[in-house]
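User: Can you recover a sequence for this backbone? Please restate the input before giving your answer.

Assistant: Of course. Working from this structure:
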């Protein structure tokens, strides 16, 4: 499968507490790395990607697209991933394709549980979760930041498989309704975290649909940052 004479896709995720990257062709992952700790991603990402490309024997000119998650997640992680993806794509002369972290989470879970509607769930801290519905056909709802109680109520009203490590926050709330079987906090791949390797097939489907490069991906922030910049000198904050 080629896209404008190019055959490879590079996928990246630094948004949700881990750092992962993968290179694939024809839906198959040919090189991958998953680091459960996202700290120092800014320093790790460039050498990590270079090592992967060397391992796969892929030159920048062979990249049909750089696929990257655009959030929700940590503000630093979102900026690092998108910034690196844009720079590499510019150098390689290929488009950047952005998906939500929640879409990636659902794509990985779908590989293990086919034909189910899912609610991808990431722990957003501060008493909230990030959620996004993904239908069995891959169509997606709007991502949002809600309380675990609101997410559980949505699942009671419209049952779907709650996937991702964040889904464990819904377990006691759904158990009250006898719906604890809807919780799969071990998907995808037993660790419940987004993994860039699952972005390869998703990115190729977007490429085949002609969706890459139409508009550059922008960061998806579903709430204000935890840390606020200092007030200008002479101005007191309440």
């Amino acid at each position: 499968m080629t896209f404008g004479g190019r055959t490879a896709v590079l996928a990246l995720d630094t948004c949700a507490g881990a750092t992962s990257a993968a290179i694939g062709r024809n839906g198959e992952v040919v090189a991958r790395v998953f680091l459960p700790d996202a700290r120092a991603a800014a320093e790790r990402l460039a050498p990590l990607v270079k090592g992967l490309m060397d391992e796969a024997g892929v030159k920048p000119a062979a990249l049909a697209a750089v696929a990257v998650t655009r959030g929700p997640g940590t503000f630093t992680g979102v900026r690092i991933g998108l910034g690196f993806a844009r720079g590499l794509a510019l150098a390689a002369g290929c488009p950047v394709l952005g998906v939500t972290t929640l879409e990636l989470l659902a794509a990985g879970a779908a590989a293990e549980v086919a034909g189910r509607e899912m609610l991808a769930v990431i722990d957003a801290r501060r008493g909230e979760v990030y959620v996004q519905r993904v239908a069995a056909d891959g169509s997606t709802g709007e991502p949002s930041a809600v309380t675990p109680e609101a997410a559980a109520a949505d699942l009671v009203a419209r049952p779907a498989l709650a996937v991702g490590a964040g889904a464990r926050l819904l377990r006691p709330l759904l158990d009250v309704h006898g719906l604890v079987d809807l919780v799969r906090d071990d998907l995808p791949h037993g660790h419940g975290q987004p993994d860039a390797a699952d972005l390869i097939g998703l990115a190729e489907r977007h490429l085949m649909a002609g969706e890459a490069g139409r508009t550059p991906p922008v960061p998806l922030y579903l709430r204000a940052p935890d840390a606020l910049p200092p007030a200008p000198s002479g101005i007191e904050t309440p």
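That completes the design. The helical segments are 41-56, 75-92, 101-110, 148-157, 171-175, 199-208.
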